């Protein structure tokens, strides 16, 4: 069950969202909002207020004469209670 959260997403947009107490994670496609909430609360010992999820569309990609599809992925944007935070980089 803990393997449903893969890794945190680090980009310019997600670092701006961290200031608003929102953290973004890549999650397994089978994960639902309830399980994501329970896992984040258990692993990071925080209170989760809201979970928003989004799935990317499967897009066709052509490289030279070979064509295929980009893989689908699912992101979860987790909103924490005021005062709670997740330390994504403990060594820095």
From TrEMBL:
SUPFAM superfamilies: Ribosomal proteins S24e, L23 and L15e. InterPro entries: Nucleotide-bd_a/b_plait_sf (IPR012677), Ribosomal_uL23-like (IPR013025), Ribosomal_uL23/eL15/eS24_sf (IPR012678), Ribosomal_uL23_CS (IPR001014). It holds the Pfam family Ribosomal_L23. GO terms for biological process: translation. GO terms for molecular function: rRNA binding; structural constituent of ribosome. Keywords: Chloroplast, Plastid, Ribonucleoprotein, Ribosomal protein, RNA-binding, rRNA-binding. The keyword Signal does not apply. The keyword RNA-binding applies. It is found in: Plastid, Chloroplast. One of its GO terms (cellular component) is ribosome. Part of the 50S ribosomal subunit. Binds to 23S rRNA. Belongs to the universal ribosomal protein uL23 family. This is Large ribosomal subunit protein uL23c. It comes from Pseudopedinella elastica.
């Amino acid at each position: 069950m803990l393997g449903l959260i893969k890794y945190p997403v680090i980009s310019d947009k997600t670092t701006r969202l961290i200031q608003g107490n929102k953290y973004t994670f890549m999650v397994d496609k089978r994960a639902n909002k309830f399980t994501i909430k329970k896992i984040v609360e258990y692993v990071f010992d925080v209170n989760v207020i809201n979970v928003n999820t989004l799935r990317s569309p499967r897009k066709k990609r052509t490289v030279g004469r070979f064509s295929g599809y980009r893989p689908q992925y699912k992101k979860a944007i987790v909103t924490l209670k005021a005062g709670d935070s997740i330390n994504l980089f403990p060594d820095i």
